[in-house]
């Protein structure tokens, strides 16, 4: 025999009514996290790593400002190494340092080839 039968009935009803709402809220949050992570992966792993300019990426993602795109787009070490290698290849043989060095250890003159092949 229950001492407080109505209180127990109300507690069960409350749990039965709120549990679906809590589950719906949690699923909604999980979906939002999934969407955010998908956009981040698309920006970093797919686009920027494969050489897509951040301006184009910003348009693809529907951002009005590149600052918004920069939140999603993280520079990876692989991309940084590729960019530095490309730069080294583009400027190879175009710039020379002078062979004379003054007493402070700085070059006195720097020779620069100003012709750029495009």
TrEMBL record:
InterPro entries: DNA_brk_join_enz, Integrase-like_cat_sf, Integrase_catalytic. GO terms for molecular function: DNA binding. Signal peptide: none annotated. Keywords: DNA recombination. The keyword Cell division does not apply. One of its GO terms (biological process) is DNA integration. Residues 36-76 form the Tyr recombinase domain. Gene3D superfamilies: Intergrase catalytic core. This is Tyrosine recombinase XerD. It comes from termite gut metagenome.
């Amino acid at each position: 025999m229950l001492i407080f039968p109505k209180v127990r009935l109300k507690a069960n009803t409350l749990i039965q009514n709120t549990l679906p709402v809590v589950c719906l809220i949690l699923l909604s949050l999980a979906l939002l996290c999934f969407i955010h992570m998908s956009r981040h992966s698309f920006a970093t792993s797919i686009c920027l790593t494969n050489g897509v300019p951040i301006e184009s990426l910003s348009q693809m993602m529907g951002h009005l400002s590149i600052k918004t795109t920069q939140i999603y787009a993280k520079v990876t070490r692989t991309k940084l190494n590729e960019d530095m290698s490309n730069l080294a290849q583009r400027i190879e043989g175009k710039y020379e340092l002078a062979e004379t060095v003054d007493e402070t250890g700085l070059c006195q003159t720097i020779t620069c080839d100003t012709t750029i092949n495009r």
